[in-house]
Amino acid sequence: MEVVTQKSTRTNLKPRKSMSPWAIARRKFVRNKLAMVSLCFLMFIAIISFLAPHITTQDITRVNISQMSLEPSSDHWLGTDKSGRDVFTRLLYGGRISLFVGISCTLIVIFIGTVIGAIAGYFGGFVDGILMRFTDFILNFPVLVFVIVLNTIFFGKANGVWVLIVVIGALYWGGIARVVRSKVLAEKENEYVLAAVSIGSSPAKVIIKHLLPNVLSTIIVQATLTFATMIIIESALSYLGFGVPQEVPSWGNMLSFANEPDVLQSKPWMWMPPALAITLTILSINFIGEGIKDALNPKSRR
């Protein structure tokens, strides 16, 4: 009877279903408390920024001389600036512009860098040499000077934001291309790639269906770090007056009030909110990136 019981027990036991690498990474990321708090904060900032028209009814462009430089109150939660505009309203609308510029630039950078790096790494030889020399030129190109010149030409025009996005996105992909190229060079020597080539798969199919999915984790990590960098660049250029046009609210434009000693010393409500928003957003993105990097690292899985 004991033998029968043991056999029936063993028969009822089912093998544990193995988890995919992406499932393991997702579980590990969820268990990273700092990364999850940062993700929730970033989502909160994005939601309230893009829902700004439904949260506040203040006019972001109206100049009200009678309400210039008012301290925070029940009518103006974060006070008003030197033109009488509500700081809280401009903070929300400024988040829309800063996040939009950061996301748009990141998408352009990741797309161009991934395409150039994948082609260079897969084909190698002459193609690799030409593309990498072009990448070296991009890396050594004075991007900020070029952005400042173009924004001076298009200053005050409606397409100023798009000029900023296109120029930054088109000239900051060099680092991503090098990272993707190195990963593709390592992956293309594996047997699954050689098997795909041997059965007549086209280079485009091998790159898209076989190589890029195996470099996707690296691309995701690089995208988070690039996102933070793009927000910093936009804020710095806008702070200096060469980024987003002054009539368009952004965190960098709001921070430019700190150039005046009087505002810096006695009117912190004008520049502290955008400064805290930029700092906390960048920290959140970096913590999320570190969490993704740790979650996708095979050596740290259990």
What is the CATH topology assignment? Answer: MetI-like fold
Percent of sequence in beta strands = under 5%
Helices, by number, come to: 14
- CATH fourth-tier homologous superfamily: MetI-like
| Shape label | elongated
Outline the biggest β-sheet. Answer: none
- Could you list the spans in which at least 5 consecutive residues all have pLDDT below 50? none
Query: Average pLDDT value?
Result: 83
Distance between the termini: 39 Å
Radius of gyration, whole Å: 25 Å
**Would you list the SSEs in sequence order as H and E?**
HHHHHHHHHHHHHH
CATH class: Mainly Alpha
Structural class of the secondary structure composition? mainly alpha
User: Number of DSSP strands?
Assistant: 0
Helix-residue proportion? over 70%
CATH architecture call: Orthogonal Bundle
Q: Supply the number of structural domains.
A: 1
Summarize the structure.
By secondary structure, this protein is mainly α. Helices cover 71% and strands 0% of the residues.
Keywords:
302 residues, mainly alpha, MetI-like fold, 14 helices, elongated
Could you characterize the architecture of this molecule?
This protein is mainly alpha-helical and 302 residues long. It has a single domain, classed as MetI-like (MetI-like fold). The chain has 14 helices and no strands. The radius of gyration is 25 Å and the shape is elongated. The mean pLDDT is 83.
Draw up the topology in text:
Elements: H1 2-12, H2 21-31, H3 33-50, H4 52-55, H5 87-123, H6 125-140, H7 143-153, H8 160-171, H9 174-187, H10 191-198, H11 203-240, H12 251-255, H13 261-266, H14 272-295
Helix pairs in contact: 2-14, 3-5, 3-14, 5-6, 5-8, 5-9, 5-11, 6-9, 7-8, 9-11, 10-11, 11-14
